[in-house]
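Predict fold of CARDB domain-containing protein; 294 aa.
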Amino acid sequence: MAHSRQLERRRLTNKFLPRWGFIIMTGLGSATAGEIRHNVFQTQNTFLAPEINIVLYNDKDYSRKFTVDFGASNVKSPAANRHSCLSRKPVAVMNGLPFDQWDPSARPRPYGAFERSTSMAVIPAKSFVHRYYPVGFFSGMPCEITLTITDQADGQKIVNRIVVTKPSQEEDVEPDDVSVTATAESQVEDKRQLVTILVKNNAAKPVAFRLVRKMLLDCDADISDSLVKEGMEGSFVRIEKHSYAAVLTAINLRSGAVSKDCRLSAEFQAVAPLSRHHPLRQVTVPLPPERRAE
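Predicted 3D structure, encoded as tokens:
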């Protein structure tokens, strides 16, 4: 039985992981400086992987606004730093054809604003937001990115240097020790909400699982990424030891408002069936009943 489970796990990994030779190891960093609490980690979840991810937390009773810069503005010349992840890749490469070719639906990607080198983030009270930047498999490894977080209220900055490295070779295990949190973020300008399901792997081994279904319950809305496919939208998810992964869902509001009962339901599965009370078996995220006007 154990041997058959190992074969099935390897089959899933081979099926869903990219096939261009290596996987990038997640790097985890967390810091508290002043009042900007955040985590930085590395994933391998899009065609243009690896991705540098950041989660910004707001512990206040009011919303806060930040900008996140993933290093492009700090590179004066493409050859200025031979160790930079950006040195072999103009930023413009990330703004055109590669993303259009990757998305098989040929529709605008709902997360395009987060796949740029600089992003704005409005964090609701007592909540968090997630942003990411795809480094691209055409960067040499290891390489580094200088990430800058700026508080728009007072100009306070945090600067982190993140080293993007090649993968660990450890075999993944069942997601038996994970923590799940979620948030819903309003995109007022286009009547959209973005739901982020943040999964933390508490185990000392990489874990792997799949997102198999997303549904909206009691909502006058539609899921933009209605196909569960590989990428930040879900499908196969692998998390390095003691690290994180984010699963995103863009929701288009038909009426521009959210009912008090509106919620997103996401279901996951592993090689072995998840127990009835497993935190990943069914994750339900309520959407805020009122759209926020930031």
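Residues 204 and 243 are 10 Å apart (CA to CA).
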